[in-house]
Amino acid sequence: MKRTDWPEWSKAALAARESVLASLMTQALTRPGLLSLAAGFTDNAVVPTEIVREAVAHLPADGSALQYGSNPGRPKLREILAARLARQDGAASPALPADRFLLTSGSQQALYLAAQALCDEGDIVLVEAPTYFVVFDVFYGLGLRVLEMPMTAQGQVDPEGVAALLKRLETEGELPRVKLAYFITYYSNPTGLSMDGAVKRALGKVFAENAPRVVALEDTAYRDLYFTAPHPTPSLAALPEWEGLSFAVMGSFSKCFSPGLRLGWIAANLPELSGAMLRIKAQQDFGSGNLSQWIAEYAFASGAFEPFVASLRIHYAAKARLMSASFAENGLNKLGWSWEEPEGGLLLWLAAPKTLDTGLESAFCRAALEENVLYVPGAFAYADPEKAPKNRVRIAFGAPRGADLAEAARRFAKAASQFA
Amino acid sequence: MKRTDWPEWSKAALAARESVLASLMTQALTRPGLLSLAAGFTDNAVVPTEIVREAVAHLPADGSALQYGSNPGRPKLREILAARLARQDGAASPALPADRFLLTSGSQQALYLAAQALCDEGDIVLVEAPTYFVVFDVFYGLGLRVLEMPMTAQGQVDPEGVAALLKRLETEGELPRVKLAYFITYYSNPTGLSMDGAVKRALGKVFAENAPRVVALEDTAYRDLYFTAPHPTPSLAALPEWEGLSFAVMGSFSKCFSPGLRLGWIAANLPELSGAMLRIKAQQDFGSGNLSQWIAEYAFASGAFEPFVASLRIHYAAKARLMSASFAENGLNKLGWSWEEPEGGLLLWLAAPKTLDTGLESAFCRAALEENVLYVPGAFAYADPEKAPKNRVRIAFGAPRGADLAEAARRFAKAASQFA
Question: Looking at this predicted complex, what is its ipTM?
Answer without folding.
Answer: 0.96
